Amino acid sequence: MDPYYLTCILFALCGYLLGSIPFGHIIGKKVAAVDVMDLGSGNIGATNVARELGLTYGALTLALDICKGFLPLCVFRLIFPEHDLSLAALAICPFLGHQYSIFLRFHGGKGVATAFGVLLALSPFSACLLLMLFLLIVAVTDYISLGSIISASAMPVFLILFKKPLPWCGAAVVIAFLIWLRHRDNLGRLIRGEERKWRNRDHARRSNRRPSSSSE
Does the reported pTM lie above 0.85? Predict the structure, then answer.
């Protein structure tokens, strides 16, 4: 086999395995001896960890999940800076690992933070704009899920506007679609006016039980 293609396969496998590491689940077990999948929304992402264990551990989970998407792409770009199609394919691997973790029997999170890490590696300026958009939406509406859904939709738009390679834009469309799928219950609750707002996290943590209208 051509060494280049072998390297791509190894990167894809390592990217998926890195993405599969359920940092939120691990932090919950190590810090509070709890399974975050049994608390709050049941999600392993930063939002549920922050609600159930506190902002510090939520921020740690967020940083680690971003790194899952960021690091594999950065290393690959250093080795193969001109291979846009391979990079686009690799971009999806850690994201799929997060959503379908081999360590959680192919269950996982919604992938928003890992998708942001991917975008940060592909287009840092686009990632900064996306972050500002997300923060603006959450500041105005107080819904993490709404900010995640709209930001995911904007990811391919920013790449197209800044004339990034077409394969990257295609990968971003796939990622945005999968994030929308994982948020379909949130969309239903948003439409019905039943989605829980971010500022309700303290009450949820005190109750230590899964509410009916969770977001991330």
Answer: yes
Torsion angle (degrees, nearest 10) of CA 50, 66, 15, 104: 10
- The pLDDT tens digits for 62-80 are 999 999 999 999 999 999 9
Residue 120 tokens read as 């940060």
Q: Are 159 and 123 in contact (CB under 8 A)?
A: yes
Which residue from 59, 69, 92, 61 is spatially nearest to 174, judged by alpha carbons? 92
- 8 Å CB contact between 53 and 131: no
Q: Are 41 and 48 in contact (CB under 8 A)?
A: yes
Tokens of 68: 């899952």
Confidence of residue 205 (pLDDT cuts 50, 70, 90): low
Biggest CA-to-CA distance, the chain = 56
For the chain, which residues make up each domain, given as ranges?
A: 3-201
CA distance 120 to 127: 5
